C-alpha cells in the first residue's frame, strides 16, 4: 500500500491531554524527506515548545532528528542519528537501548505517527510492532517505546489503524489521510490543515 506525496505543510490542534498547536513543513530530500516542525503547548500547568528537523529516507526510516526543547526550566537540544538498520546514536553516543527501532516518535508531535504507517505499508488485517526512539517533550529524554499497529481498513479515502502503546496503557484508532498523515489522534490531536 502506498500513500500520496505529503503536502507542503500540515497543522494539528492538541486536544484533551494538552492545549496547543503543531505546524510542519515537508521538503523533498533526495530519496527521502526533511520535515521541519514546531509544537507549543500547555500541559498540566506547564508550558513548553519543541522545534525539530527530522530526515527520513525513501522508505520513511528515520535517519536523523535534531530537536530543541524550551520551557520555564530553560532550553535543551538533542541530536539522534540512525543507521537505517536499527542502531542509534544520541548526542554522538551509542544508544543500545534503541536497537531495532526504525522510527523517531516525539511526545510533542502528532506528525511522527506517520513514520511507521508509511514504512510498514500494512494491508487491511495486517499488524506489526513498531518500537520507536521516543523523545519526551519537556526534558527531551530519549526512551524506547514499544508500539503496535493494526491496519483495520478504510473509511472512504481515510485509512484506519488500531494503535497501542502498552507502556502507557493506551490504545486508540488512528485515522490517516491519503498522504499518510494522522487526521484524528483521539485525546491527543486533530488535523487542522
UniProtKB/TrEMBL annotation:
Listed Pfam families: Glycolipid_bind
Lineage top rank: taxon: Bacteria
UniProt cross-references to SUPFAM superfamilies, sorted A to Z: PA1994-like (SSF159275)
Protein name: Glycolipid-binding domain-containing protein
Protein source organism: Streptosporangium longisporum
